[in-house]
């Protein structure tokens, strides 16, 4: 039998009748890592389950989180369009998602609710659908160690206390993490991530103000 050449990464997970003639602009000049992920068939991707998610957070290997290949493709298309329409991802976050007029905090960290907004992660990782991925955005800085890029002991303690009082009373299983500086997709607005296992839907609606992640609002690439 003749040897079949592998598909270019930009054609994987795309129906044959929708194949572009050449690599789309939004997939040009992406990292080798993203090329490898996008070039993997969804059928070969395994969703992470709750125990795996908790363990990656516990050992601080959040770099191991990956989006499902077809979702990463959609994410790349979406952010490419955002930059053209809004000038930058930060402008979109501030003006559309957060709707903050300024970034000046009104109080000390976690003291004023107006300095905090909880939204869904617009493009969550490839995880069990029973895990809800939220992002806590803050107007105040959460200090990182300049040498390691990780939370300082003090900022970690502040986040932990906030997460416990905000999520602890209503969710049995949860964990949080703050991305290493090198992994952040939005650098200019402080944020950290919270994963909830099987949370109450009414609680989520109250917490996020009825938010809907962008992945559910936009069409496929």
From TrEMBL:
Q: Which GO terms describe its biological process?
A: N-acetylglucosamine metabolic process
Q: Which domain of life is it from?
A: Eukaryota
Q: What is this protein called?
A: N-acetylglucosamine-induced protein 1
Enumerate the PANTHER family for this protein.
N-ACETYLGLUCOSAMINE-INDUCED PROTEIN 1 (PTHR35020)
What's a Pfam family this protein contains? Answer: DUF3605
GO CC annotations, alphabetized: cytoplasm
């Amino acid at each position: 039998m003749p040897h079949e050449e592998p598909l270019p990464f930009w054609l994987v997970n795309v129906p044959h009748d929708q194949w572009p003639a050449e690599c789309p602009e939004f997939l040009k000049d992406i990292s080798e890592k993203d090329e490898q992920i996008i070039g993997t068939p969804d059928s070969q991707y395994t969703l992470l389950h709750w125990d795996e998610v908790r363990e990656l957070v516990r050992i601080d290997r959040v770099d191991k989180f990956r989006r499902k290949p077809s979702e990463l493709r959609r994410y790349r298309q979406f952010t490419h369009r955002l930059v053209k329409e809004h000038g930058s991802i930060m402008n979109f976050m501030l003006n559309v998602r957060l709707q903050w007029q300024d970034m000046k905090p009104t109080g000390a960290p976690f003291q004023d609710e107006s300095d905090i907004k909880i939204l869904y992660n617009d493009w969550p990782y490839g995880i069990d659908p029973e895990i809800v991925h939220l992002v806590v955005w803050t107007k105040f800085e959460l200090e990182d160690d300049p040498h390691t890029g990780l939370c300082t002991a003090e900022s970690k303690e502040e986040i932990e206390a906030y997460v416990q009082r905000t999520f602890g009373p209503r969710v049995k299983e949860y964990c949080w993490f703050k991305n290493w500086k090198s992994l952040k997709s939005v650098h200019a607005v402080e944020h950290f991530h919270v994963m909830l296992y099987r949370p109450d839907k009414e609680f989520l609606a109250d917490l996020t103000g009825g938010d809907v992640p962008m992945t559910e609002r936009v069409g496929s690439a």
